[in-house]
Design brief:
It comes from Mycolicibacterium pallens. This is ThuA-like domain-containing protein. The protein has six helices and 13 strands. With 295 residues, the protein is α/β, with parallel strands linked by helices. The strands form four sheets. A seven-stranded mixed beta sheet has the order 2-1-3-4-13-10-9, with helices on both faces. Strand 1, helix 1 and strand 2 form a beta-alpha-beta unit.
Length: 295
Amino acid sequence: MSRILLQTTITAQPDDWNIGRFSLLAAELRAAGHDVVARDRAHHGDDPILSVLDDLAFDQLWLMAVDTGDGLTDTEADAIMKFRRGGGGVLTARDHQDLGCCLTRLGSLGHVNEFQDKTVDQSHLCDDRDTPTISWPNYHSGANGDYQPVLATDPVHPLLRTSQSASGRIEWFPAHPHEGAVSASVPCATVVAQGRSSASGRRFNLAVAIDGETSDGLPMGRALAESTFHHFADYNWDLGCGAPSFVSETPGTQILADPARLVVFKDYVRNVAEWLHPGIRAYPAAPPMTHVSLS
């Protein structure tokens, strides 16, 4: 069992991707036996949890980067880096264009998350032509509420294994009209899964794992970068949960019509939590979190 901090990079805002919109993910992790603390930022400025993450008794950080660039302070980014150097596992999930670009402060994990380069004309790369206000990267894997096929090469990464399909691997992820870009651009990075744009046919990475990275000769915690937090959002698992008012794209109905493939995808969530669990994690000597509010 892991102690997991499931955290967004924004303060609690009802009409945004606040932590309440990831309640099904939190429930799935708890059902798998993990102790989950789910929260938004407490306020702007150094957050009382993220800023001291390396001193708290968490094993994993699942960071939903739903901000527009100001989601992490320098102190928080430093604490997350120390957390990984101490063996903690980190998952990041961002989205299109520069959404979640605060992740660039996280060393190698920031490098594998690719964001907009304003010095280069990338308009020809935009897949989602239905929402012209969104720029690159935006890979169109399908409508919210639909599935997208997962492309994987042999040997299949352990994160994609399941006993619930004939192939022995997870074959479908929730789709999204404009996913971000993640790449295996640093040593120890591996592409776990790819998708194919339903608009252009281009392949793109859905998830990139970092395993075996060291700092000062010591192993760092594993990390996983997701191309979009919509792989995990309530709305993408169950349209009935609703979305913020700025979500204007017409949703699909595939998950509603065939929920069995979503059940298989949830093995991916369980695999990630098991894979990110630290082999060694130095916990603080004092009782954990007795001096810190979780609000």
